Amino acid sequence: MASKGLHTLNIFLIISIASILYGVQLPIRTETKKSLGYPKDSLLNFTELTNEYGYDSQEHTIVTEDGYILTMFRIVKGKNCIGRNREPPVILMHGLLQSSDSWLDAGPNAGLAYLIADACFDLWVGNCRGNYYSRRHVSLNPDTDNQFWQFSVDEIGYYDIPAMVDYVLDNTGAENVNYVGFSQGAGTFFIMCSERPGYCEKANMLIALAPAARQTNTRSVLYRFLMGTVYNIEGFLKKTGVGEMLPKGSFGQEFLAFFCHLNSLTGRMCNMGQSLLDAFHPGSVSGETTRVLYGHFPAGTSVHNMARYGQSMKRRDFAKFDYGKDHNLKLYGSEEPPKYNLSAVSVPVVTLYGRNDGLVDVKDVKWLMRKLPNVVEELEVEDHLWTHLDVTYSQFTSTMIFPKIHEHLQSNSNN
Ligand SMILES: *[C@@H]1O[C@H](CO)[C@@H](O)[C@H](O)[C@H]1NC(C)=O
Ligand SMILES: *[C@@H]1O[C@H](CO)[C@@H](O)[C@H](O)[C@H]1NC(C)=O
């Protein structure tokens, strides 16, 4: 029967995921990777990469109210920016299992971090808790304290996004920021607006790229299955002490980095895998980007956060984590998890979304837009094959999405 087959598959997945995460950390040394012919860019971090392409950048450390230590990068000046930077500063925030480096993997002609910096914006690129740049805490040890991994987008939106906004304002002396968020990077901004009165107004505007709030209509069967499985086995993983998912240096990530760089055939297979997870858009992600990006992806998150996505695809609203009636009552004072208050998203919102997005469906974006009180523009990307991951990895960002981003950043900036 189908359910029995699924059951077997689940057990198989439990065993492989557990062994991947629990036992097998397999970081390969950088020297070894160089000798194996890994592309150089896949081995560099944010500052090294930007410097290599002639962009001046800085590293900043931020501590959240609940003790997580986050890394933010700032591109001080775009290589092709003539004249002074515009104000206010811009915050750029990545999606699930990504890091700041995801904005660089497509190279200086397509990576959005380069394009925004080249247009003379003071660009700050964030990293949320749990990825390889933000895997630190003032008192918890991510390797031994499972408590470190008890977070999902609920906490990222409540603590990380406000901490980054405050830090950028303090550091630059600006009065507000312009915020560009992709997928989870936009969803967590809505959470901040709902839960932290006064914070939404610290942004002039939000540019939401394929924003992940409700995920009722996600089309990707593979993504649904993977996230649903993590949701189903979260309790089991927790008992065995597994709180972290797909960190850099794990067997899963190292395998992808190795396999995808090997040759053009394996590269195409990786591209195919990515399309199965999201949707097909032939030729959009270049071979070179595919060889590079798995050096920075997956960047790690918590099991709990992945489970959160598994859960949200089964719901029809955008709410906090559902722990079941009893625990909800204790935690929230109600049997149902509270819905996020999207009416509190007071900032002007611009949304760009792809018709062919397999992870954040157009129907859910439309649902979200109807809930937001201050939508300035919602625009479907002209290319009908535009997918979710195209936002960070397509070679066509400069024509497909950047002009709109640029237009709105410019009209919300001085000089
Ligand atoms: C990036 O690499 C440089 C040079 O190796 C190093 O000094 C820096 O600490 C690294 N930054 C991070 C955040 O890992
Ligand atoms: C949601 O936010 C709006 C705007 O801030 C506010 O007027 C309203 O009372 C909030 N609703 C709830 C249920 O908190």
Structure description:
With 415 residues, the protein is an alpha/beta fold. It has a single domain (2-411), classed as 3-Layer(aba) Sandwich (Rossmann fold). It has helices at 2-23, 30-35, 46-52, 112-118, 153-172, 184-195, 221-239, 251-261, 264-277, 287-293, 303-312, 325-332, 362-371, 390-393, 397-400, 402-411; strands spanning 56-63, 68-77, 86-93, 121-125, 136-137, 177-182, 203-209, 244-245, 301-302, 349-353, 375-380. Strands 1, 2, 3, 4, 5, 6, 7, 10 and 11 form a nine-stranded mixed beta sheet that branches. Strands 8-9 form a two-stranded antiparallel sheet. Helix 5 (153-172) crosses helix 6 (184-195) and helix 7 crosses helix 11. It is globular and about 55 Å long. The structure holds 2-acetamido-2-deoxy-beta-D-glucopyranose (2 copies).
Q: What gyration radius follows from the Cα positions, in whole Å? A: 20 Å
Q: What are the bound molecules?
A: 2-acetamido-2-deoxy-beta-D-glucopyranose
Class inferred from helices and paired strands: alpha/beta
Q: Total strand count, please?
A: 11
Shape: globular
Helix % is 40-55%
Runs in which pLDDT lies below 50 for 5 or more consecutive residues are none
**Count of structural domains:** 1
Please write the string of helix (H) and strand (E) elements.
HHHEEEHEEHEHEHEHHHEHHEHEHHH
The main β sheet shows up as:
9 strands, mixed
Q: Count of helices?
A: 16
CATH homologous superfamily (4th level) name: Alpha/Beta hydrolase fold, catalytic domain
Q: Which architecture does the CATH hierarchy give at level 2?
A: 3-Layer(aba) Sandwich
Strand proportion, as a percent range, falls in 5-15%
**What is the fold-level CATH name, i.e. the topology?**
Rossmann fold
User: In whole angstroms, how far apart are the ends?
Assistant: 65 Å
What multimeric state do the chains show?
Answer: single chain
InterPro entries: AB_hydrolase_fold, AB_hydrolase_lipase, Lipase_euk
Family: Belongs to the AB hydrolase superfamily. Lipase family.
Keywords: Hydrolase, Lipid degradation, Lipid metabolism, Membrane, Transmembrane, Transmembrane helix
Protein name: Lipase
